[in-house]
Specification:
This protein is α/β, with parallel strands linked by helices. Helix content is about 35%, strand content about 30%. The longest helix has 19 residues. The relative contact order is 0.20.
């Protein structure tokens, strides 16, 4: 009986270690989640390029944290608490993205310095942006992905800006169904 209990505890501990081992890194599952999300939410056939920040967003204000996660829990129900908790851990800092996306459209990753250069142009920032990326749909910023322990549920934040008063931010819940990530539900967090 004792050895059975020790075996069960070991299996549980190891499965938790596997889940936690992705902390602070963008892994292949994260890129699969991003690819599914972008394929569904940014599949504009009139635009051939998606410009994405090469740094994940990590600007979740600590003062609003509890309200933010209550908002997610209420609007993306039945999301698991484990997924929300992992999302919190994953988004403490920003992470460098690579172009490991599996998409049918061209992706350009831009650095913070390049984005700041456009903003430095004063009021003409979007004009300069669209001169550089004429067939894009604007700028997309992604968060790190939070997963449940079985890696079958994912939470990600995506912001899309396309002009001074053109943009949205969404929290997106994805489920892994038959080996593929699918957007289950999304909720708008802001609009301009």
């Amino acid at each position: 009986m004792r050895s059975l209990l020790i075996s069960a505890v070991t299996v549980i501990a190891l499965s938790g270690a596997v889940w936690a081992s992705h902390a602070g890194a963008v892994n292949s599952e994260s890129y699969a989640v991003y690819s599914a999300l972008l394929s569904e939410m940014h599949a504009d056939p009139d635009k051939s390029v998606r410009v994405i920040s090469d740094q994940t967003a990590a600007d979740f204000s600590p003062g609003k944290e509890n309200k933010q996660f209550d908002f997610i829990r209420e609007n993306l129900s039945p999301i698991s608490q484990a997924t929300i908790d992992d999302f919190k851990v994953q988004n403490v800092t920003s992470t460098q993205l690579e172009n490991k996306l599996n998409l049918k459209f061209k992706v350009v990753l831009v650095t913070k310095e390049e984005i700041d250069k456009f903003f430095g142009q004063g009021g003409s920032w979007w004009k300069g942006f669209y001169q550089q990326y004429p067939n894009s749909n604007g700028l997309i910023t992604l968060s790190n992905v939070g997963f449940n322990p079985t890696m079958t549920e994912a939470l990600v934040y995506v912001a899309h800006t396309c002009d001074g008063l053109c943009g949205t931010g969404h929290y997106v819940l994805l489920l892994k169904v038959e080996g593929k990530w699918k957007v289950e539900r999304k909720v708008m967090a802001w609009i301009s």
